[in-house]
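Agenda item 2: 2'-deoxycytidine-5'-monophosphate complex prediction
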Amino acid sequence: MTITVAIDGPAASGKGTLARRLAAILGIPHLDTGLLYRAVGRRVLDGDGDPADPMAAAQAARALVPADLQRSDLRGPAADSASAAVASVPEVRAALLEFQRQFAAKGAVLDGRDIGTVVLPDAPVKLFVTASLEVRAQRRYRELVARHGVVPDIVIVRADMAARDEADSSRAAAPLRPAETAVILDTSDLSADEALARAEAIVRWKLGADRD
Ligand code: DC
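Presented output:
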């Protein structure tokens, strides 16, 4: 049986770790689709372009190659804002659509912002993973300290995150919102292990229910 799981949610909601671990349990590949937008943003910055320029962003999206996803500079504030800018360009989203669908064709877990609504509207399992802004800002803060060795100002981290939420949710092209049939999983008060256990239970219930 082909299992396709669509996971959407805002930044630092825990969806990435959840998606990766869920895919490992189910024995299927995982694609972090945010990396695609990050790689497009990086390509534009490499050429000294403006990620908000639709022409430059669309050109970079069409030139994307799989090796771009392996770059070591896809995380951090510059890549964050460049990716949010290119993600609002419809031509960029269109250029990335086919790759994502092909990746999912034989079964996969995809996480992003529009997986359940646009990329895989027929996915049998859709999760919308979220958490409060405060909790997500704290998580991002700890990640920046642990991964990048910087001690950022939490006020700035929170403001950046709120701005990115706003950009992701208010853009005209594929805004962040739960699919109609998505199960909402709020991880504000859950550890990563607890969130995974709930997600796995939801997947098994959904797949079982679909067979009835
Ligand atoms: O999940 P992330 O933070 O790595 O995503 C980076 C940016 O890309 C973010 O601003 C939202 C955007 N994105 C999107 O618009 N659609 C997706 N499927 C995945 C990410």
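Discussion summary: The chain is about 55% helix and 10% strand.
Owner for follow-up: CH.
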